[in-house]
Amino acid sequence: MSYTLLIIVLPAIMFLILGLGGKKMKPAFAGILGTLSLSVITVLSYMTAYEYFFKIGRSAEGAFGTITALNFEWLKFTDKLHIDLGIMLDPISVMMLVVITTVSLMVHIYSLGYMKGERGFQRYYAFLSLFSFSMLGLVVATNIFQMYIFWELVGVSSYCLISFYYTKPSAVAASKKAFIVTRFADLFFLIGILIVSFYSETFDFATLTNPNASFVQETLGVSFLGFSVLSWAMMFIFIGGAGKSAMMPFHIWLPDAMEGPTPASALIHAATMVVAGVFLVARLFPVYLFGTPEVLEIIGYIGCITSLFAAIVACTQTDIKRVLAYSTISQIAYMITSLGVSGYAGHDGLGYMASMFHLFTHAFFKALLFLGAGAIIHAVHSNEMKDMGGLWKKLPITHITFLIACLAIAGIPPFSGFFSKDEILAAAFHTNKFMFTCLFLGAGLTAFYMFRLYYRIFHNGKDQHYHHEPHEAGLVMTIPLMILAIFTVIGGFVPFADLITADRLPFEAHIDWTIGGPSILIAVIGISIATAMYFKKSELPDKVANGFNGFYRAAYRKFYFDEIWLFITRKIIFNCISRPIAWFDRHIVDAFMDGLAFVTNGASNKIKGWQSGRIQSYATTYLVGALCFVFVFAAICIVCFICK
Fold first, then answer.
1. pLDDT tens digits along 487-546
2. Strand pairing partners for 82?
3. N- or C-end of the chain: fewer Cβ atoms within 10 A?
């Protein structure tokens, strides 16, 4: 399967072509060229998935193996420790190839219409290619350091796309916020990698994720502050994943990332950046489960609390893209929690399978929601719900596809979100009731805020007067919506338990109606409340908001996390740490170096006459020096003679 190298190389080449020569191309040609390249990559990814899952990937015993399509040594430190670059194919990496390329292709096609006429059109497609290259390289990495390299490239790509409208101060601030927050988390990721590699003497995933790996037992005996060194390392690695996947308290960058173009938001939220943290935990899952189960439990608690928190905040937001941003945080947290409650073999590994299943289904309906939001914004020229209403007749295709996505994320059968969310709830219910309760309440809130969004866009405010009559976008924007809607409808019927499991052996999965029934019920309750409050304009939402008063206001302000971070960074880090360090640097380090320079300059001024270039001066100096030497030598001889 060496042709898979093209999946990585083509977007890199396209980035260079569009980035260096894009200005010499017509915008339409640059967009079509980028889209055609991604089309080829998508076809190759589907070929890879078909060949792996249905031809050569499964052994005679029924387990899926690992295929190393390419691997070569790049940097060598010791005989055992070296950084390789290569392509590793296993169930989750092949699944991610399909997800990334499908969503990225839809974004490329959609952007031909949405971004038409934008300044920097060619630059935008260059950044899309860089983003696709970065994420594809990340998921097929053969070792954790290769993953880290592409991990950082994903961060750079997101910075470029979020700050695409670089003349807007808000876009610049949002891109810096995303970059700084994720870099802070990535520092811990790097520390974790270094600790693991020090004890295991390898970066290779095949060795690290072997359930019988010897380094796991060796590091468990080495402790620091009451925890094993491996526990610290795996927690640090997860912090890197929490930063990318916007888990609390690193979630603050994601809502502001909406400043980038809406199609780019679909790419960031649905298929690339924010699921990288989930993929990281899944890739290292055997290490977490067999080496540091306490860290895996902490990961589960962080996920369930983040999920409920983000769902509450989403209920109060008025910018449609920010509602979807907090929805993404909540859904990614679902996946994180599902990994936290998972075992390894058979039905014990239900959480792992469910997490990957939800990653798969979420990619399509969340991309559909963001691209639908883009079509709405394109029609009404506003992100705010108050400027919308009654659009169901004016945007019929967008309306139907958006409704399908809302039903899917709310967990209504037979749409895909129901099947994957039900498996997550079942895994949590049989493992940890607190986590299940958080996720269950989050499911009801998800249905509520999504249909609050749906009604306020398409129904509430039927008498809304628009400055420009809204109309449906062209086929180049609506076709991707329809394709993603099809994936959203049929995605839940993919036999995931037969394809992607923790131990790579299939098991029989079925809907647990003792969980599925109540999950449908709470979704219907959430939709019903949203219908009563928002289907028609009324004073009920204001009364409810006033009834909750302080809590509603706190939720609207995102529970003041931004203010807390500003306080920590400005008052504590800057004032209490950075300022003293700056004073020490300026008055001690700089003063010492300035003193050395002063002494050196003074001495050089005194002796510079010795190199005047005048022969007489050199002769005089030589004569004086020789005489001094003679006198000193004579004095020493006399002293020695007297002493003798």
1. 999 998 988 889 999 888 888 888 888 898 999 999 999 999 999 998 888 888 888 888
2. 76
3. C
What gap in Å lies between CA 489 and CA 41, rounded to an integer? Answer: 24
Annotate 155-186 with b (16+ C-beta within 10 A) or e (fewer): bebbbbbbbbbeeeeebeebbebbbebbeebb
DSSP run (H or E) holding 73: strand 67-76
Nearest to 509 by CA among 297, 347, 323, 290: 347
CA atoms of 185 and 244, how far apart (whole Å): 8
> Is 434 in contact with 508 (CB distance < 8 Å)?
no
Q: Residue by residue, what is the 3-state secondary structure of 17-62?
A: HHHHHHHHCCHHHHHHHHHHHHHHHHHHHHHHHHHHHHHHCECCCC
Neighbours of 258 (CB within 10 A): 26
Q: What tens digit of pLDDT does each residue of 594-637 get?
A: 888 888 888 888 777 767 777 777 788 788 889 898 998 888 88
- CB-facing half-sphere around the CA of 440: CA atoms within 13 A: 19
For residue 40, which of 10, 70, 5, 1 has the smallest C-alpha distance?
10
- Within 13 Å, how many C-alpha atoms sit on residue 10's CB side? 20
What would the two tokens of residue 575 be?
A: 């004032």
CA distances from 577 to 211, 302, 568, 569, 587 (A): 43, 28, 11, 10, 16
Token pair 């809406």: residue? 262
CA 324, CA 326: separation in Å to the nearest integer? 6
Residues 130-164: tens digit of each pLDDT:
999 999 999 999 999 999 999 999 989 988 888 88
Q: Which amino acid is at 640?
A: C
The residue to which tokens 């997490």 are assigned: 355
Asked if 339 contacts 299 with a C-beta cutoff of 8 angstroms, the reply is yes
CA R_g for the chain: 31
The DSSP bridge partners found for residue 72 are: 85
